[in-house]
Amino acid sequence: MSQDTFRSESSEGDAFVDDGSSVDIVGFLQRHRRRFFMATLVVGLLTLSAVGISRAIPPVARTAYMEITPTFLGAREGRYPNRAPFSPQDIVATSVVEPVWRAQGLEGVVSLPDLCRNLQI
After folding, report:
1. Predicted TM-score of the model (pTM)
2. What is the residue extent of each domain of the chain?
């Protein structure tokens, strides 16, 4: 016998060379290229379908509840420290919400008028 190694002629397309010392990856891939192509195509189509379905489903409304306790002087008496009357509705005023909306980068998620309209105390 010569020093060359011979590939096994298995009907399943083994990737191993006869002497068991190396792997014929290129040959294996060439023999199974249709299966790899079809598997890639199927996975791609499934992914595109899942993305399409997720975009077609309407977004879910989310509700968050928080307990807020003002701690500034005069809050218990219903007055700001400068003695101006305090109302819980002041917390959801546009002048208070807008800096938070900008700082949190919510411009791409919800418009400021929509956010202010949906905040409640």
Report:
1. 0.42
2. 1-57, 61-121
